[in-house]
């Protein structure tokens, strides 16, 4: 498991392209036949990807967690963005197909991931946060989420938001998770941008054509920087940073947060004309 430590606002201002990418971009997340993890020290959120092919992939423990097993003191959210797949949690099997979300509660011990087809494998995107108590492991199908439409074609940000793990959805200790789908011709996400000093956020971009890119904007609202992102890559957003993107075509992304509260609406918006 790779570790990413904190960076101060002052430090980030001074970073060049390579340094920004090294600190905040999480690439090589979806690797066939592997589970990959990156441990961020912002709210101790672990970002991961699991791509099972012909066999099952089991969730292993990591010595750096100093735990008996991965979810001894943690909870986990998983969203599939690939082919049909299954997740087994302590003997129960859940069908987690594209855009379905499984919340896995603290205390769950034996977890494994599998794909229905090795040729079209499931792509499981994983977030894990520290948890103080156990909530039920529960599946939310895409069709059970309540979509909310935001933005407009005129401002190139017409998009639909699906919330899965949050105060009024799947219950968790602190994890918040969902996804956003941009309409064809819309390329801007999260504009107007916002910060939420109470929560870090991670974005995972998917369903972007292989020959396209997304300019992901980060940094303090008056000190913005960008990182270019390709399909199936994630980016870490410190609590004090904006997180917004503009693609060279439309795309979808999973957002997820850990921290002080689970109130999706807790955002301090930044006026578009105040961004620098
Ligand atoms: O704090 C919330 C997150 O930044 C995202 O949910 C925003 C988002 O998906 C969007 O506006 O498209
Ligand atoms: Zn946000």
Automatic annotation (TrEMBL):
Keywords linked to the UniProt accession: Isomerase, Metal-binding, Zinc
TM spans (from-to): none
Lineage top rank: taxon: Bacteria
Catalytic activity: 5-dehydro-4-deoxy-D-glucuronate = 3-deoxy-D-glycero-2,5-hexodiulosonate
InterPro entries reported for this sequence: KduI, KduI/IolB_isomerase, KduI_N, RmlC-like_jellyroll, RmlC_Cupin_sf
Cofactor needs: Zn(2+)
UniProt EC number: 5.3.1.17
GO terms of molecular function: 4-deoxy-L-threo-5-hexosulose-uronate ketol-isomerase activity; zinc ion binding
Pfam families: KduI
Entry note: cofactor: Binds 1 zinc ion per subunit.
GO biological process, one term: D-glucuronate catabolic process
Broad class of enzyme this protein falls into: isomerase
Keyword Cell inner membrane recorded: no
Pathway(s) per entry: Glycan metabolism; pectin degradation; 2-dehydro-3-deoxy-D-gluconate from pectin: step 4/5
Residues annotated as binding Zn(2+): 194, 196, 201, 243
Record function comment: Catalyzes the isomerization of 5-dehydro-4-deoxy-D-glucuronate to 3-deoxy-D-glycero-2,5-hexodiulosonate.
NCBIfam families associated with the record: PRK00924.1 (NF002091)
Family: Belongs to the KduI family.
Name of protein: 4-deoxy-L-threo-5-hexosulose-uronate ketol-isomerase
